[in-house]
Design a protein that fits this description.
142 residues; mainly alpha; 7 helices; 0% strand
């Protein structure tokens, strides 16, 4: 459950006014919000206070690590794939072709395709089964 900024501020104020007790803070939050059940666990209060004491802010901070490039690359991959499909006679484009054309690693192309609306494969019927074939298969399966 994500807490809004106002709720976080209320929790921190209550925590320090209730002798730094998570249990008393939770009880007071329930009273203020007019709830019978706990709106969040004690651990949420403890984590919020630890984060507040560590960062001196109630705002969400960006997590460490390398930022995702999927958003930047998705439009490039989609336009390249649609261009390749338009040029192809069989309405087909491969991730390897797109990677070669755009300079984006093939693994990243596959990741973009998987997370977007496009599908990495297309189901196509390669053989039509006629009525006599259906009877032969049915007899064979017996």
């Amino acid at each position: 459950m994500s807490l809004d900024l106002e709720t976080r501020l209320t929790i921190v104020k209550l925590f320090y006014s209730n002798n730094e007790s998570p249990t008393a803070t939770l009880r007071e939050c329930k009273r203020i919000m007019s709830l019978h059940n706990d709106p969040f666990p004690h651990l949420t209060i403890s984590r919020l206070i630890k984060k507040f004491e560590r960062t001196k802010t109630l705002h969400d901070i960006q997590s460490p690590g390398r930022p995702s490039m999927t958003d930047d690359r998705s439009s490039v991959v989609e336009t390249s794939m649609s261009k390749l499909q338009a040029e192809s006679t069989i309405d087909h484009s491969s991730s390897q072709q797109v990677a070669r054309e755009t300079g984006i690693p093939q693994r990243s192309v596959l990741r973009v395709v998987r997370h977007s609306v496009m599908h990495p494969f297309r189901i196509s019927q390669t053989q039509a089964i006629s009525d006599p074939d259906k009877f032969k298969r049915f007899d064979f399966a017996k």
